[in-house]
Amino acid sequence: MRLTPARKLVLNLFKTKSSLLCAEDIERLLKNESIFLSTIYRALEYFEKENVLGKSTINKTAYYYLIDGKHHHYMICTTCLSRFPIDCKLDSMINKNMKKHNFVPTSHDLTIYGYCENCAKLQNN
Ligand SMILES: [Zn+2]
Ligand SMILES: [Zn+2]
Which of 13, 50, 87, 116 has the fewest CB atoms within 10 Å, i.e. the most exposed one? Predict the structure, then answer.
């Protein structure tokens, strides 16, 4: 992985934030660093391709999060964009179905969207 100064700034943001970030969030957070939005988009694409960042589209906006080595799934709050990891329990289901269809799986994806505890409370008020 090649880290330009701009890429390093973007990556460091993801290491300090636990919620998802879109390109505009990053532009706002890095406003003192004078990085173009187009540079941020390119950095995000690069990290996604390198499997450093994962991407979720929420309300038509692409949000990114750090992939922390271990395979996880996530529950994502669509209001505050908090993210909660869930262990993957899909392997036995995938194994059973791949045999049935002689299918060769290479990867899978599952994200659960909803409201976190705090945002669920606000919904009911
Ligand atoms: Zn929330
Ligand atoms: Zn999984």
Answer: 87
